[in-house]
Inverse folding.
């Protein structure tokens, strides 16, 4: 893909979900913008290889017996005061639970975003926006306490498993994963138990 993601700093007290809705409605093509670290991001349209890779990874989780695997849903991370820290749409994920009545109420109250604590594992496959997936979104997932982050970095031809999220006292912008396993694409990527090692020859 040659398109670069569009980013726009948000300098307003408006609910970021409202801004994303306005951007979606103004677009002539279907998009799903995200909000990370105070910036609205409109990811480039994923190409077929990106989507095939994400789908192949979800199939591996399903084949290993994980039924709560999905794509396409948006998730909201919040600061302690309840304001939005991030509104993200992972390329694939494994949930901790099926959506409860409380989760569905949260979805309605937050205009289409589920609570991020539903997620046990998230995954991203980079496009031209690899800096977003390797930086800002990784910090959002760590700050929100998502236990495992899988990254397929097509820019560096590497696959990564991040675990043990750390949220330092100085805030979410410094959040990180303490443990990383990295392999070249094409090798099997070990994940923390109980997840399967992933075939990255995609």
């Amino acid at each position: 893909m040659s398109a670069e993601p569009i980013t726009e700093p948000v300098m307003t007290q408006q609910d970021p979900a409202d801004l994303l809705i306005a951007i979606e409605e103004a677009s002539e093509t279907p998009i799903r913008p995200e909000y990370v670290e105070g910036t609205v991001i409109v990811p480039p349209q994923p190409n077929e290889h990106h989507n095939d890779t994400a789908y192949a990874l979800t199939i591996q989780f399903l084949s290993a017996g994980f039924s709560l695997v999905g794509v396409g849903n948006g998730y909201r991370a919040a600061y302690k005061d309840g304001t939005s820290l991030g509104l993200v749409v992972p390329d694939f994920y494994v949930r901790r639970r099926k959506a409860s009545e409380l989760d569905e109420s949260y979805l309605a109250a937050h205009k289409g975003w589920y609570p991020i604590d539903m997620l046990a594992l998230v995954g991203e496959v980079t496009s031209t926006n690899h800096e977003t997936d390797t930086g800002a979104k990784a910090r959002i997932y760590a700050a929100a306490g998502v236990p495992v982050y899988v990254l397929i970095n097509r820019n560096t031809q590497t696959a990564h498993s991040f675990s043990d999220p750390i949220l330092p006292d100085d805030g979410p912008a410094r959040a990180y994963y303490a443990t990383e396993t990295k392999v070249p694409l094409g090798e099997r990527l070990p994940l923390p138990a109980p997840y399967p090692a992933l075939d990255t020859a995609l």
User: Anything to note?
Assistant: The mean pLDDT is 92. The helical segments are 16-26, 48-63, 101-109, 130-143. Residues 48 and 90 are 17 Å apart (CA to CA).
